[in-house]
Amino acid sequence: SKKIIIAIDGMSSCGKSTIAKQLAQQLNYIYVDSGAMYRAITLYFLRNNIDIANTTQVKDALQEIELDFRFNEQSEQVEIFLNDENVEYLIREMIVAEKVSEVAALADVRAYAVSQQQKMGGKKGVIMDGRDIGTVVFPHAELKLFMVADNAIRVERRFKELYQKNPNITIEEVAHNIEMRDYIDANREISPLRKAKDAIEIDNTNLTPDEQLQKVLNLANSVL
Ligand code: C5P
Question: Which member of 92, 142, 155, 179 lies 3.0 to 4.6 Å from 4 by CB, making a disulfide possible if both were Cys?
Fold first, then answer.
């Protein structure tokens, strides 16, 4: 069967990466977590005190950043490297989550990330999740999904995930971060979060991971 591009968008913590990883495994496709790129750029900016209001500083910083995804045999996951350092776990921390949407709203940052994402899609057989994949990065993707889930469920899922690594985290903190990122992501000037006209909406509020996977596999098989 032919190789296609699958674009998965939606608000924060809607289960995009869960379904993307499962699909990639089932179809033997490459999974690309575009949000990890914005998070890694944000980590670099934080470490180097980049003033995001200063375009020259931002442009210069981007020139110093090299991102790549590498497969880890042990975890059997793709992990992101920032200048050869594995930052897959560091970028999930709250300090990054608190700044990432402001960084991702910058024109230079988006141009940098999108051009790399488009190159990764060149060979097809790619599943990418994010906010603007079906609208901007791959407007011609053969399959576009737009994930939604109730707010309370999203907060609960993300809280459980973060709590495992940091038992000091509070549910209020998680709820606030999700709300803030969704607001900035949906209201920014460049590539705001939107459902593409031809995207299929999937509400997984009441779906088990298995039910969701079956539903999405059926959709994928209908275009493969
Ligand atoms: O997907 P994740 O929640 O890790 O993404 C982190 C942030 O990166 C989002 O809140 C958003 O600000 C930004 N992002 C983006 N465009 C994408 C993916 C992520 O602006 N395609």
Answer: 142
Q: Is residue 160 part of a domain?
A: yes
Residue 127 included in any domain: yes
CA–CA dist 221, 224 (Å, integer): 5
Residue 89 covered by a domain: yes
CA distance linking residue 69 with residue 116, whole number of Å: 11
pTM for the model: 0.97
For residue 210, give the CATH number of its domain: 3.40.50.300
Q: Is residue 224 part of a domain?
A: no
Does 34 contact ligand 1 (Cβ within 6 A)? yes
> What is the average pLDDT across 32-58?
98
ipTM over 0.85: yes
Number of domains in the chain: 1
Does the C-beta of 158 come closer than 6 Å to ligand 1? no
Mutate to test the pocket of ligand 1, among 78, 95, 131 (most ligand atoms within 8 A of CB): 131
How distant, in Å, are the alpha carbons of 69, 88, 117, 135 from that of 122? 15, 24, 9, 17
Distance (Å) from CA 142 to ligand 1 centroid? 22
Provide the residue range defining the domain that includes 177.
5-219
